[in-house]
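re: ur question from yesterday

yeah so i grabbed the chain u mentioned. its 235 aa long if i counted rite. heres the sequnce exactly as i have it in my notes:
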Amino acid sequence: MNGYWNSLRPMEKRLVVGVGTMVVILLNLWFVVPHFSDLPKVRDRKNKAEYVKTKFEEEIARKPIYVQGITNLQGGQDVPAEDWIYDFQNKIQSEAVSSGVQIRNQPKPRSETNTFFIQQVQSLQLDAKEQQLVNFLYGLGNGPSIRVRGLNLHADPSHTLLQAGVTLVASYQKKTPVRGTAPAAQKSTTSKAPVPAQHPPPSSPRTVKPGTTNAPANPPTLPGGKSIPSNNKKT
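ran it thru and got these structure tokens back, copy pasting raw so excuse formatting
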């Protein structure tokens, strides 16, 4: 290679150097320059990955809180199914009395259901002062089962009280049967009458003429075809 380079004239050496430089520049323009903008993109991807990692680690650290919440929800309310409506309305009435709220209208609650809970929904029309209404809603929401779904406020005609339309929801856990248990077999209540034993009909008695005995219809025979004489004699 050195011999070839030394054999070139100065002008030819300049030409080879110039052509090589152009080739290197073209290769950089073709393969390197288009990827100059990749660095900011890689940095953005790195920042996003670190952000997601941080969020995941925070959620993993909160696992005990979620487990405790699920345990509380699975525990349900220690209220029988037939007392759900009574328990719901009793809590509303007791909290209204303690907070000084006047209930103008309280229709019958309706029931809603989902996979795990039975929900009792109650609509109320209230008259109360501001602090009384706050105490009433806080007292209801402080329990484990009742929450406020909707609230509508406006002043009464005298502008001394608040008239509120409140929608309350109470959640009660369904009682699901334990897996792996089968219902007990029901015993049949019908009793079968004993079948009477069937006896063969009694044989009809034979009529025997006076002075005769019951002899077999076919008397036994001796060897040679002779029959045994009968002892039956007529009297």
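noticed a couple things. The CA atoms of residues 3 and 9 lie 12 Å apart. also The chain is about 40% helix and 20% strand.
anyway ttyl
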